[in-house]
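Support case: zinc ion complex. Customer-provided input:
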Amino acid sequence: MEKLCEVCLEKKSITTCRLCGRSICSQHYTGSGLCSICSVSLCSLCRERLAITECSICSRLICEICSRQITPVVRICLQCYRRGYREWPPRDMLEKEVESFQKAVREIEHLFSSLSEKRIKSS
Ligand SMILES: [Zn+2]
Ligand SMILES: [Zn+2]
Ligand SMILES: [Zn+2]
Ligand SMILES: [Zn+2]
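Agent response - structure generated as follows:
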């Protein structure tokens, strides 16, 4: 009996994926020895290993080798790590947050001062 493609379960397989070992048909073979499922979940840095997660900064898919765990829950890619991101949340992200927070505070202060001005005028 011929082996069926384990991706579509319809066409007969022509080869097996070198990563997951699935039997794949010509339609689900991507040409680099990978099935269509593995090729979309490959690490975007090495294109060799399956990604385990995505970078918390650039959201690229990353494998264990091409990434660094910077906190127990945050993993970033080696490129972001080399760009100087060593802590979470990244400092420039924090600065932006602080900036928008300060802006919101200023707006509220402005609102309050215009309100109290009105109150002073009407009294
Ligand atoms: Zn198939
Ligand atoms: Zn595969
Ligand atoms: Zn990788
Ligand atoms: Zn990254």
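The longest helix spans residues 91-122.

Case will auto-close in a few days if no follow-up is received.
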